Amino acid sequence: MEHEVFVPVPVERLREALGDPHRVARAVPGLQQDAGADPVAGRLKVRFGSHSITYRGTVRVSTHPDGSYAVEGDATEARGTGSVKLALTLRLRDTDDGTALTVDGTATADGRVTELPAETVSSALTRLLNRFAENLGAFEDEPSVPEAVPEPEPVPVLEEFTEPEEPPAEAAHARRTMIGRSAEEVDHAPPRGRYAPVPAPQTVAAGTTLRWAAPAAALVLASAIVVGRALRKRR
User: Fold this and answer.
1) Residue 4, pLDDT score
2) What burial class does residue 73 get, using C-beta atoms within 10 Å of its C-beta: 0-12 exposed, 13-18 middle, 19+ buried?
3) Those residues with Cβ within 8 angstroms of residue 128's Cβ, 6 or more apart along the chain or in another chain
């Protein structure tokens, strides 16, 4: 077979992709790669018209001294006895707008694929190579994952401190006089100063004065009567 695909990326970018087995594996459309496999290994489902065949195998890419690449593949049918072997050569040619990728080589197969029309098989392989080249060149535009930037530590916010107002002189005096007294005395101590209750009028003293004034008045009156009678007798 011989096929040429145009890839709109520089030659050096394409060489970097072909030199990385992981990129090669991701570029193969429909490949389910086995984890940690080297060379590239896994399952590949290929559609031939209205039919599809799943293969399990490996593929290896190596570099030739002339700058071309050798692709060697070997696979067997996942559900059957058929097998496929291929030996391809990839050549890169620099162009004004990108790179021309030329594929030529041979492929042998048996099993179910031999029962399909040759044109159907050729069309499926051409489509597979085109998508492979497109995927291989698309890695150039993949954005690099930025390194995680640690979040800055939060800046502590200084809360405004308000100095408490000084208590009134009476309250301060009452609080100082209560220092050292028991909690029971403090709880039952009457408030002082401006917050103390107004005392009731002293009615007891007035009553006491009136109680003593009445007998004294009676005594004075009796003495006056006695003195008056004595003066009348002398006359």
Assistant:
1) 95
2) buried
3) 29, 46
HSE of 115, CA atoms in CB hemisphere, 13 A: 6
Q: pLDDT of 3-35, one tens digit each?
A: 999 999 999 999 999 999 889 989 999 899 888
Q: Which domains does the chain have, with CATH numbers?
A: 2-141 (3.30.530.20)
Tokens of 53: 């065949």
Structure tokens at 132: 């492979």
In angstroms, how far is the first alpha carbon of the chain from the final one?
181
Which parts of the chain register pLDDT below 50? Answer: 141, 143-148, 159-161, 179-180, 182-184, 186, 203-210, 212
C-beta atoms surrounding 209 within 10 Å: 9
> Is 119 in a helix, a strand, or coil?
helix
Supply the DSSP symbol for 66.
Answer: T
Going by their DSSP bridges, the two strands 99-109 and 51-63 should be labelled as unpaired
Of the candidates 198, 194, 203, 73, the residue with the CA atom closest to the CA atom of residue 132: 73
Quote the longest CA-to-CA distance of the chain. Answer: 182
Residues found in the chain: 235
Torsion of CA 154, 155, 156, 159, to 10 degrees: -120
DSSP for 43-65 reads EEEEEETTEEEEEEEEEEEEE-T
